[in-house]
Design goal:
Layout lengths: L3 E5 L2 E5 L5 E3 L4 E4 L6 H7 L8 H16 L3 E4 L9 H4 L2 H13 L1 E5 L14 E3 L1 E4 L2 E4 L10 E3 L4 E6 L4 E9 L3 E3 L10 E2 L3 H4 L8 E5 L4 E5 L6 H4 L13 E3 L1
Parallel strand pairs: 4-5, 5-6, 6-7, 9-10, 10-13, 11-14
Antiparallel strand pairs: 1-2, 2-3, 3-4, 8-9, 11-12, 12-13, 12-15, 15-16, 16-17
Helix pairs in contact: 2-4
């Protein structure tokens, strides 16, 4: 799996095709929007989903932590789908997550779905976490100084290949702000052209990095028309610009 380098704030970051961010100089791994126990929250409202989202998400995160061996982990908010999500974690998943937290310097950035830290799991909780030159927060703050790293919007973009259209979660950056894709098994996505995302970035500098199986594919957001210009579908009606491989 080939991560793509991103130079931001004078630091070298790595965008991993799994959707996590690596900051090698700090031994840091950041992950956004786990939304653990979304399945059980949906079941309580009468929408039956397979109850395996937390197990799948935690197992996938554990594999990445074993691979990259970070000293620090920053979970960028909405780690749980609601305030009671941590209490609903099955015993095995709770034990696995607690072991991950105990093994590193773990930071819970609080989100709109989880405005309080999970009880009994350890780690430190923050409204926003500052590690110079970056500020890690859940939801982008319009007008924030350069160096913001965030999640919340679950960015997603589409490209057209010779064979078919591909819509995938993605990173988005303009060199001043970086938005991570959602990591959770049951998370959806918002088109990067939606004003809620596009309005946070300097369009002429913004790029999306689509998650591939083993690498990222990047393109400039300025190459895409607005949803109003191309219709409501996430992909343009005509063939999308050729994406470049990021390696």
């Amino acid at each position: 799996m080939s991560a793509a380098p991103l130079h931001m704030g004078g630091e070298r970051l790595m965008l991993d095709p799994s959707g996590v961010l690596l900051w090698p100089a700090q031994g840091l791994l950041a992950v956004a929007d786990l939304h653990l126990e979304k399945g059980s929250a949906a079941a309580a409202r009468g929408r039956l989903l397979p109850p395996y989202d937390s197990a799948a998400t935690i197992a996938r995160l554990a594999r990445l932590i074993r691979r990259h061996r970070p000293a620090r982990v920053v979970a960028l908010g909405d780690s749980f789908h609601d305030a009671e999500g941590a209490a609903r974690l099955p015993r095995a998943e709770r034990a696995q997550l607690a072991a991950l937290v105990a093994a590193t310097e773990w930071h819970w950035v609080l989100g709109n779905h989880d405005p309080a830290p999970p009880a009994g799991l350890g780690g430190a909780a923050h409204e926003a976490l500052r590690i110079t030159p970056f500020t890690f927060r859940h939801e982008a703050l319009p007008g924030a100084p350069a160096g913001e790293i965030c999640g919340h919007h679950h960015p997603r973009a589409a490209i057209a290949t010779e064979a078919r259209r591909i819509a995938r979660p993605c990173f988005v950056t303009d060199g001043r702000r970086l938005m991570l894709p959602a990591f959770g098994a049951y998370t959806g996505g918002l088109d990067v052209r939606d004003p809620a995302i596009a309005g946070l970035f300097v369009r002429r500098h913004a790029r999306a990095f689509l998650l591939g199986e083993a690498r990222l594919y990047s393109f400039a957001l300025a190459q895409l028309g607005s949803p109003a210009e191309t219709g409501a579908d996430p992909a343009p009606a005509r063939r999308a610009p050729r994406a470049s491989r990021a390696s």
